[in-house]
User: Fold these one by one.
Assistant:
Number 1:
Amino acid sequence: MSATFVGMPAFPDAARSALADSQLRGNLAHATSTIRGKRAQVVGEVSEWEELRLAGAAIKDNTLHHLDEHLLRLERSLTERGATVHWARDAAEACAIVAGIAQQHGVDEVVKVKSMATQEIELNEFLAEQGIAAWETDLAELIVQLGDDLPSHILVPAIHRNRAEIREIFRAKMPGAPDDLTDNPADLAAAARLHLRQKFLSARMAVSGANFAVADTGTLMVVESEGNGRMCLTLPDILVSVVGIEKVVPSWDDLDVFLQLLPRSSTGERMNPYTSTWTGVTPGDGPQEMHVVLLDNGRTRALADEVGRQALRCIRCSACLNVCPVYERTGGHAYGSVYPGPIGAILNPLLRGVGHDKQLDSLPYASSLCGACFEACPVRIDFPEVLVHLRSKVVDAHRGRAERGVRCTLRAERPVRLGRAPKPEAVAMKAASWALRDAGRLGRLERLAGAAGRLLARVLRRSAPGGRRVLGSLPGPGARWTTARDVPAPPTESFREWWQREGGRS
Amino acid sequence: MSGAREEILASIRTALRDAPPEVEVPRGYRSSPPPADLVALFDERVTDYRATVTRCALVDVVEAIRSALGDAARVVVSGDLPYPVDGALDDDLSASELDAVDAVVTTAAVGIAVTGTIVLDHGPGQGRRALSLVPDRHVCVIRDDQIVAGVPDAIARLDPARPQTWISGPSATSDIELDRVEGVHGPRQLHVVVVRED
Ligand code: SF4
């Protein structure tokens, strides 16, 4: 993948061009609504779902709050089981470690399992510069890589491409793709199977991530669908896993929560087709040399943020993307990062800090604070709370600069003196945060908002394609954002009212 | 990069100066009542993934395996598979040789009824991980007393020190317009034989 997100325009500009792309919007709307439906059904089957969410959040919080101890235990367990542990402060260090291992073994080709962490550090680009080819083996990643494109969704990264486009990419870029390749998904998948089989059989080194790393036992886990993960984790001699430091869980038993939460939230299945676990080196079975790179790259910065650190609970299921009205209409690319959607709107600024990059600073505003992401999140990340907090951090950072004599044009159409401008919004956001933290309060307020919505509906009468009522541009600080996007009018029925009417099954 | 290790740990400790105390993890989900008929539910849920399920008595298992293998000409098994399979190759194959094999027969460690999952821990009868991965058809024989209700029961039974493969249906992808397609890299056909121990 030679494309990168570097130099992306800020969210409102990127969103505006994405909105104009009707193919993208059509594909995305179909994808997100399909996954939403599947998820709702399988989540509805689990009577203890809410308790599992609470357990997931509690396990992650307890771990994050003693992260140093858990990482040291993980390091010890891994080492005892014959793996080599490396620590990387940032992307450059992590990439150098992986490339160093390849070079040490004279390897110029590696196979890869889809991994957010390696995308985050842009490992493939770095390896390419070193003359090492990295083959993405996940079908969607392969489509993205061959199309010289960017992923647009955590779970289905090529969701912005339809079957006809994929056939064209394969015909043009996949060595040995049959001339009479059809655009039937089964045929396209079979072509990818053939193309990659030889690579799997001959590869000497694989690079993976891990969904979870168990401190007690040194067990790593990869959750997948296609079997490319199993191939990479089993056939090569050398395995390097790049693992964010927040992926650690204390004990094996804790996985009984996450293996219920993740597949149902993610693909909307009771269980994903394949999950692999391995604990160091197993003589005679699988890779005999194993490395684990523990990656910081901004995670300790996020951890230092009292309110924001909950974003590190994220298990990358992508449920928040699929329920997000902003994501559904703009797509993943507008977020300018491998982490799009609601999680991207909070995680990117937390990992990289605010006040120095317009693109990053615009992300906490890429939300209408509707809270659907919180309802969907299996580890109960309180998005409205974190978004509001980050908005105030952005404002504070710019106020600091304004005081040093820098005029800031970030949030408003015209330059404003930031000492004054953010106040009304900050107050509104505080109120929203207060309301959203308490279910009872939220319920009462939503009924109020529903009433206001019914009133507005009579006044406004503007509708979007498909008949959905929308508001025009918002005044004040929201204006920049709403000129690129129609804000849904407050629904006449609140989410909770709808939930109860539907029997609470989603 | 030992400097990196110390620096990351130090940043974590600084970041956590104000960390709140531990909270209690609710574990009530572990005691939810089990479904009435585990084997029936397992059968239904495995079938839901478009895998095939055969239920048989111990005396009929050899025949059940034979019919699950269908027209597969080259079959590989781990040397310690407790069921005889006519003409099966022993696993002393390279990865490319394995690629020329049509089917594999294994046992399993645990079955999970609620999710329709079989778990291999690559112990006796199951072979190394590549064995049940490269051939295109996987026939997996599981005893009914190995089937547990849910994920927590399976986690409690399994030994994390062993490599594990959790399998729920055949290899699949939904990467192209979210159409679920069976089979990208793993076995495209999964046949589970549930043996009644009587
Ligand atoms: S933030 Fe929550 S919903 Fe979003 S990807 Fe992470 S775990 Fe899933």
Number 2:
Amino acid sequence: MIELLDIKKAFNQNRPNEYWALHGIDLAVEAGKVTAFRGPSGSGKTTLLTIVGCLSRPTSGRVRFKGEDISALPERFLTDIRRQSFGFVFQQFNLIKGLSALENVILPAFPTGRPRAELVARAGELFERLQLTHRAQAKVEWLSGGEQQRVAIARALINDPEVIIADEPTANLDTALSMEFMAILEGFTAAGKTVLLTSHDPLVVESSAVHRVVGMRDGRLIGD
Amino acid sequence: MNPWLEKQRHLIDFTLASLARRKTRNIGLLVAYTLLVFVLASLTLFSNALRSEAKYVLAGSPEVILQRMVAGRHDLIPPGYLEQIGRIRGVQKKEGRLWGYYYDPVLNANYTFMARPASEVADGMIMVGEALARERGLAKNNTISFRSYSGKLFTFEVAAVLSPDSELLSADLVLLSEDDFRRFFEYPEGHYTDIALSVANPQEVRNVAAKLTAALPDSRPILREEVQRTYQSVFDWREGILLTVLAGAILAFAILAWEKAAGLSAEEKREIGILKAIGWETGDVIRMKIWEGLLISLTAFLGGFLAAYVHVFHFGAAVFEPVLKGWSVLYPKFALVPAVDGLQVATLFFFTVFPYTAAILVPIWRAAITDPDAVMR
Ligand SMILES: Nc1ncnc2c1ncn2[C@@H]1O[C@H](COP(=O)(O)OP(=O)(O)OP(=O)(O)O)[C@@H](O)[C@H]1O
Ligand SMILES: [Mg+2]
């Protein structure tokens, strides 16, 4: 479903502080499976996810999504693909403060112009599935870490993406909440979604919900 | 509904929510902005209204008014003067006028009483200006009594309330018949307050004035064009002051807009990053911010403009009182008749709404085109 061909990424290219975060990554990600990236801090996991999720472009190399080369598309198209096909759960959750959980969740669907009633109904379903219905109207900054994470997950799902990208999804969670997250992951697989995540957490990478673990070090992959 | 419209609705919803989130800051901004529009709109409306008042005043006034001077002071025109003027070439009509001031202790105000031929106002009847009617609660067919300077009480019936084409002209006006006027003020028979002459050809006005002074050495002709020039200089002086205020206000506004522009907070930048990461296009972010700019500036414009309208036309531009002192010596009291010039409103709109919206766009655009991957870190 997603193919990476010799992906390299440099930050601050051609400047004194030039830094190569990725040194040529070749990888094929299978559809409908959970793939986890594991590696020490600074090994390039997040950088790789931003490239896969069309948040940034590789310095060189190609990204193929469902057979189509997307690394050369103009920004507008990348944004369309990102909105339609990818849902993001960020490490810091990145919810917008001051807005309610519900408002945060429907935000990614605004550019689609779907009617509000439809979006609210869809968000209602997601809240129910994530057991968050009673907190839908609460401002996000009042929510607990686990609740915030579930809001972030609901937001990632509002446009019904095929791929979910989660960067350190359990970093801010205790064991019980992490287990809950793994259960949600299994739900994704059951629904046929492809998941890419990064984690240091043994609980995640060794869980049966994860189908494949890819190791990284210094911007390179190290055996499966 | 059309997805495009639906999308704009979403963007407005989000904008409103965003504005509500930063309440104090946005209310501060809105207040400053509204105040600016208020000052600018007040000035615009005020000077425009004054101009149109002056136009009415001048349009209705005769080309030449002849006053008699005694010891350097305006005195009554004695009998026989009208005849003495005789026929002067170019004068179409000459007429003795009767008018005077009456102090009303009820309102603490001066009225202008003016006599009219019996064909216009019958004995025992009066016509009153709009402002006066309002203040004294008068309507057609009501009666009102005035105590004359000699202590006698006169009762009149209101025949009509004068239409307020120009309140400056008619606010404090009381029209009554010539006989009533003479009786009320005990005005000597055959005397007049001044003489009004109409001259059709503007080129002749100066000649007429010269002939008048020759025929009646103790009189002083007042020319409309001179009055016009006085008005003009009064206006110019006033507009100079207004312009200074205007420049100050615009400067303050520029600083405000720049502040807002430069001060895109880290929080706002992060939010723009989040919106982009979750699938908003650069264009969506910019559109959302345009809505924000429009909502703020339109609210400020409407609020400021309405406040200015009320201020100028209902409270007589009370804030500008000090600047107006000179004017109010000429005309004791008046309310301006609402006169709004579309072009002026459009100019005001352009100079307040447009720069603000434009000023906020630059930094937004800069923030909106950056790669959204920063939010991952
Ligand atoms: N915008 C940037 N400018 C310069 N260097 C960057 C930038 N983003 C990332 N890097 C560098 O690239 C390397 C890889 O970063 P990345 O965030 O992908 O690591 P990571 O594997 O996700 O680490 P962690 O486990 O700590 O999240 C790091 O050394 C980082 O300092
Ligand atoms: Mg990382």
Number 3:
Amino acid sequence: MNKEIAKEIEERFSQKGYNIPISEIESRLDKLLNEFKVPQEEARRSVVNYFLKEYNIPRGDFFVQQGETPTVKVSDITSDGNWINISAKVVQLWDDTHESIDQAGLMGDETGTIKFNKWAKAELPALEEGKTYLFKNVVTDSYQERLQINFNRTSQIEEITEDIEVNTQQAEAPTVKVSEITTEGKWINISVKVAQLWDSTHESIDQAGLMGDETGTIKFIKWAKAELPSLVEGKSYLLKNVVTDSFQERFQINFNRTSLIEEITEDIEIGTLTVEFSGAMVDIQSGSGLIKRCPECNRALIKGVCGEHGKVEGSYDLRIKAVMDDGVCVQDSLLNREISEQLTGITLDEAKQMATEALDQSVVLEMFKEKLLGKYYLVKGPKLDRSILVEDISLLPPLELDQIDTIIAQMEV
Amino acid sequence: MAGQYTREVAYRIFAQEFRDSNLSFKDSNDQYSPQYLLTPTGAKVNRMLIVGTLTEKEDIGNEAEYWRARVVDPTGAFLIYAGQYQPEAAQVMANIEAPQYLAVVGKPSTFQTEDGTILTSVRPESIHIVDAQTRDRWVVETTQRTLERVKDLNSDNPDAVRAKEHYNTDSSVYRQMALAALESLNTE
Ligand SMILES: [Zn+2]
């Protein structure tokens, strides 16, 4: 792969009259790709820019031509406004009524199909159904939230003899259930109910949360730039053209510009409404540790007083109101006595004894903070209002070296 | 949920980016409105989580204890100051010895020197001893968060726009910093 890219870069320079030893290009590329784990496109760009600078080549000299236009597959087309070259077969020609459009239809390659528009004023040769062409300098566009390809005056069309097997299945995304989501990068349609919307502080995210069907729940992210209507907690939707993704070893659903959201009247029942959150425990709130509860209503007492029943003789309990934080979201998590005991290794009886010896109930909370804060945990449990009622909490296991490589690779995408 | 108190997220920032930051501001003139530090990749930070190695500590106070500590990550060092207004943190500081892995939750703070240079430091809310695996997690996570912000720099997110305007951010610098930090885990 490196050699191919290096060769391509070398050829582009030599077309412009600059001869750069391919070994230099290769070693630079190799360093970026392998040593610094720079993504391929960035590496290519970086190498080109490096040699432009090194050989004092004016940028204008180099980029004037269409050499810069990338050659892509249908599935690579994920945003509008990009100039591309593409080899594709014309699958369908549509009868078009609009005078400004010369031809329109569907074209495709082995990765999928896409709509195209050939403007009349582009004055390009007529396309025939079933024939394969190399389209140069065409532009990606989106219309009614669907991506398409437009041909214009600077576009070139060359018929090629190579026959392309078109994958038409991707034209319509399959309809799946949550539990069937087992790979990333799949375009799907899915009917779900929004179980939770999370507070996100990241402004590039419009909405994030949890949605589910009778088979389970899954995290979703709706990017602000997708410009989609807002989802409402508790409502059910048919989502079309959303993409599966995985993040930190868990699957999620991403919405993008081509996604469609339709509210449906059917009330989808969510199978298991268990939430997961992993992050660092950054704080334990007051009212944690050894506490007393009202015998009447079970509320936690504040200085021996119940908000409802006044001063009462309380009974001891343990709990932890943990603040989890992954650097994007803050998640309150409530650990009951059982879970608190398991996590800290301190039982209620031991906690009572500690407090008695110290003549101070707060020693328990201090000890919990010392043991737990600053570490990374995965918590699971149903979410009530803003808190996860933790049913399971575990320290995140140590990272393995090969995991780090995987993470690096994922982050470069 | 409107009006409900929302806790500020603890941002993950590498030392190099934190050191490069110099734009602090409030969203309103209200004296209780939170102070933010905007970093070159557009993190609008009121709280941060640092996990690194304590390499030095010194009591630079006169009458009362005033601790200055260096906590180091793969890209450089954070300066941490803890005095009488950070009693829990100061107490931890007094009782530990370098080197030690620490998790520090704190607020960013800036200080302008006589020659006009702006120095950043952290006022800790809490300091806890952690282990190497927690540090590794933090490096991975901070790389992720940094790369997310770098990616977001080209969006119309107002923090990103402002950061680019103020710092003229060369995103490749922070991208490479983050990736190099992650790489450093492999060679240890
Ligand atoms: Zn009561």
